Every structure is written in C-alpha cells, then in structure tokens.
Amino acid sequence: MSLLTIVQYVAGRTNVPVPATVYGNTDPLIVQMMRLLEEEGNDLARRHPWQGITFEATHTSLAAEDQGALATIATNGYRDIKNGTFWDRTNKLPILGPLSDQEWQTFKGMATTGPRYWFRIRGGKLLINPVPAAGYTWAFEYISKNWILGVDGTSYRQYFLLDTDTILIPEDLVLMGLRWRWKKEKGLDYAEDYETYERQVKDAMGADGGKRTLCMDGSVRRPQPGIFVSDMSWNL
After folding, report:
1. How far apart are CA 3 and CA 36, in angstroms?
2. Beta partners for 128?
3. How many CB atoms lie within 10 A of CB 59?
4. Are 85 and 152 in contact (CB under 8 A)?
5. Which residue spans within the chain are E strands per DSSP?
6. What is the C-alpha separation between 179 and 185, in angstroms, rounded?
7. Cα 117 from Cα 130, distance rounded (Å)
8. Contact partners, residue 18, CB within 8 Å, separation at least 6
9. Which pLDDT score is estimated for 234?
10. CA-to-CA distance for 179 and 201, rounded, in angstroms?
11. Which residue among 40, 98, 137, 204 sits deepest, i.e. has the most Cβ atoms within 10 Å of its Cβ?
12. pLDDT at 232
C-alpha cells in the first residue's frame, strides 16, 4: 500500500473525509494522520528486525583499525548489524564480536594477533582488532531505519516524500497501528484496538521471514567451515 491508499483507508474507517492527495495536503486532519503514520512506521520498524528492512553490506578491508563509519559501509539507512552475520568471505571465517568496551581494551592491551578478527562499534565507526590486511571482502546483514520505498524501487527513506511511497513493513500492522494512534490522539477509547494490535504484532514477529526448526536440546545449527558432501550425491 502507498501513503495515499493507507490514509484513504483509515480516513474511511474513522469518519474523516477521504482525501484525493496526502503529501502536501494542508488539511490539518490529513497532515496529522500522515505524521501519526510516520510515527507508527518508525516505532514498528524499531521493534523487530523485519525481513523487509534487512539488507546486506559488503566492505573491502582497510589496513587500519578504523574501517570507517558504518553509515558509509551500510549505506541504506544503517541501524544495527544482525548478530552472527559478519563474515570474512576472502578467508572464509566469521568476524567475531561485537566486543564490549572492557573486552576491546583487554584485546588492545594484549596486542593480539592471529587469523581471527574481532569487531567493535564505537562512535558510529567499525573498529577491527587485530589490524587486518587491506583487500579482504567482508559482508554482513543489517537492519535499516528506512521503512519506506519510493515508486522507482530504489529510493529508500524514513519519512514520506510522495503519495506513491510504499512501505516495507507489514501493511496490516501499520493500518491497525495508525487506527489506534488516531483514536488516542482524538481522546477516543482505543484500548481494544491497541490490545488487538499488540497481539497481531507478536504473531507477525514470530512468522516474519519464515519459522525455523527448533532443536529441543537447545543447540543452534549453522554452517561451519569445512568440506560438505551432499546426501545422495555419491554412487555405491
């Protein structure tokens, strides 16, 4: 759904005149509804690493501890690195971390060396210990704060700029969220709408991106470095 269709739908449900346009509309009710929609989108985007706002960043290592600002490495509205996704693709090893401030200072004091690299985020920058060689290809997944997509399919943003802007987080949740926020803003009873919304958010979080098989022994199975032979790929 676009900015226009979302506001038109909720306006029709809340006895507000359905607008022909939203962005640039001077009607205070429509302006208020758009701002509440942005508030809902930003809050919902922060609550869960939705697959719709998950992106991959690649980086060529520098021969320095400071690899640069994460905002310039993960260029699409970087918010957080997804744990366990940071890999050195050249050496086929994970980049470990993030280190705490105490761990980082311990590593610095010990002058560590070796093939395994550790990372820390400080001051918005990606720091690596020990200092790597230049030219390695690194990659990680990250969560973006940009939950809005322009009609061109390439312009991502956090706030609306056109009526044709669409959203990358669950549309049904955004509609429900906007409805209870509107009622709250107008001093109406919104408790039931809010409770229903919260239940739906929890269900959507559990289903987002598909559900994985859980191991009853508590272990986490993930690919490890090594040689893999696929089942049924050999002759007897």
Report:
1. 12
2. 119
3. 18
4. no
5. 54-60, 66-69, 78-81, 87-88, 93-94, 118-122, 125-129, 137-144, 148-149, 156-157, 166-167
6. 10
7. 6
8. 8, 11, 12
9. 55
10. 14
11. 40
12. 46
Confidence at residue 201, expressed as pLDDT on a 0 to 100 scale: 97
Query: Rounded CA gap, 75 and 60, in Å?
Result: 14
Give the residue ranges of the chain where pLDDT is below 50. 232
Strands 87-88 and 93-94: antiparallel
pLDDT at 168: 98
Per DSSP, what are the bridge partners of residue 94?
87
According to the model, what pLDDT value does residue 210 have? 80
Sheet architecture: strand order including 156-157: 156-157, 148-149, 166-167
Q: Which residues fall within 8 angstroms of residue 113, CB to CB, at 6 or more apart? A: 130
How far apart CA 106 and CA 108 sit, in angstroms, is 5
